[in-house]
Amino acid sequence: MADTWIQGSFAFRCSAAEAALLVQAVDAAHDMCAALGNEPPGPDLLAVFPPTDPGDLWSGFRAAFADPEFPCVGADFSSAGLPDEPENCVICFSSMDDFDPGAIAMLIQRCCQQTLRIAPVGFEWAMTCSKPRIGEIGGGWCAVFADRIAFESTGEALSRALDGIL
């Protein structure tokens, strides 16, 4: 038996309005995963996560995650205002064991369209294992654009390099 961890940590700048939307989304996901009650989503959150079921205002939010019954963000999250730029914030996602690149990228793309129209946001992650098992150590990268999300694992990059496709 071996333990596998996905680790990552990165920060990026976004507008204060986008940061507030990310805070709402992350808080809602944490509350849902902890089986706490949720207030109805606000209009800004509904705009980026429109309901897929008219009788359930949270249905579009849950449907955006890989497991709608357990909408896990997969990282610790923080948001900090910039004293010299009150219109902007710094966002940080990090985790030492359960970093979820897909969920994080989806939240950034849905909540930070203004920022992504200026420049993409990118991050990397590492996959480690408590034992030296073949195929259990690697990582990858993600680039989040306003209109798409691109992922690649180190295994895919290595395969291309070994095939002479650089």
What would you note in describing this structure?
By secondary structure, this protein is α+β, with helices and mostly antiparallel strands. It has one domain. It has helices spanning 16-33, 43-48, 59-63, 101-111, 113-118, 154-162; strands spanning 4-15, 76-82, 85-95, 121-129, 138-144, 149-153. It has a 6-stranded antiparallel sheet with strand order 2-3-1-4-5-6. It is globular, with a radius of gyration of 17 Å. 27% of the residues are buried.
Tell me the count of domains: 1
Q: What order do the SSEs take from the amino end to the carboxyl end, as H and E? A: EHHHEEHHEEEH
Structural class: alpha+beta
Output the radius of gyration.
17 Å
Range of strand content? 25-35%
Could you say which overall geometry the principal axes of the C-alpha atoms support? globular
Give the overall pLDDT as a whole number.
94
The largest sheet, given as strand count, sense and whether it forms a barrel, is:
6 strands, antiparallel
As laid out across the biggest beta sheet, the strand order is 2-3-1-4-5-6
Q: Determine the N-to-C terminus distance.
A: 36 Å
Number of strands: 6
Flag low-confidence runs.
Answer: none
**Helix tally?**
6
Helix content: 25-40%
Descriptors:
33% helix; 166 residues; 6 strands; alpha+beta; 6-stranded antiparallel beta sheet
Summarize the entry for a quick read.
This protein has 166 residues and is α+β, with helices and mostly antiparallel strands. 33% of the residues lie in helices and 31% in strands. A hairpin with a 2-residue loop joins β2 (76-82) and β3.
